[in-house]
Design a protein that fits this description.
- The chain has about 80 residues and is an all-alpha fold.
- About 70% of the residues lie in helices and about 0% in strands.
- The radius of gyration is 16 Å and the shape is flat.
- The N and C termini lie far apart (about 40 Å).
- The relative contact order is 0.08.
């Protein structure tokens, strides 16, 4: 059985790690805005964050139940919105 990251690392450590990560993402995305616009940059940042979270957490697709699918689709990022 896998243990979640929240049981191994205190929440305050995760918060301290998240703060500079958000600021670094903001700083790195400044140059991208000229090429894809602000909405495109936000969409790219969300997608990169989702991929990074997936790599770190590696959720099992088997754990996704049919009743969870509407919520997943509702909160999925949509380009241009």
């Amino acid at each position: 059985m896998r243990t979640s990251i929240s049981t191994r690392v205190p929440a305050w450590v995760l918060a301290l790690a998240a703060m500079p990560t958000v600021q670094l993402a903001n700083a790195l995305s400044v140059g991208v805005i000229a090429h894809v616009g602000s909405a495109g940059t936000a969409w790219l940042r969300m997608c990169c964050g989702a991929v990074l979270l997936w790599v770190i957490a590696r959720p099992s697709l088997r754990s996704l139940r049919a009743r969870d699918l509407p919520a997943v689709l509702l909160w999925a990022p949509r380009p241009g919105s």
